[in-house]
Structure prediction request, 183 residues.
Amino acid sequence: MADHPDDPKDPRDPQDPVDPFPTDFPQPPPSRFPPVGQEIMPPVETPASPPADPVDPPSDWNAGADAHDLPLDTKRPSRLKVLGQMAFPPPPPADEEVLAARDRRWTTRVILVVAVFMLVFNGASIQNWARQQAPNWFTVTVQQVADVWMTQVSQLGADRPRQAIRDAYQDAHDARFPGQDPA
Prediction:
């Protein structure tokens, strides 16, 4: 098929405008739904079809189709995401040894953070524990270190939340109903 409109071998009508994107495909049939203001094409005669069974209407059901084969996300990823995946491909899946090491690191971090938190905000418990033990070199040393630690922490004001909770508990413990004897 020639792309030049003046070609004598071209079967198209010379009055038709040149297609902006010439292809080798045949011209599509005219639409049955033209734009507003144009006439509607008469319906095309089709060969007679057998009468439809009223019990089982014709459908487009495909018994071999599986709904799980359909893609869930029909949107195409953005070009930037595709470029990022090409430039930085995802790492290979981790094996059990790598996962176990990662879990150990996470556990160690959590234990250290909780230990530091408890040491700063609940150092009085170490003092109380050392006072409850039988006196020996270890418990006396722990009690002296805990006393020094709590003195330093109280200067920062880190003992105030624990003391506020303790005071609120003691106030609730000492509270009495009207007419009840004081504790």
Remarks:
- The chain has a mean pLDDT of 79.
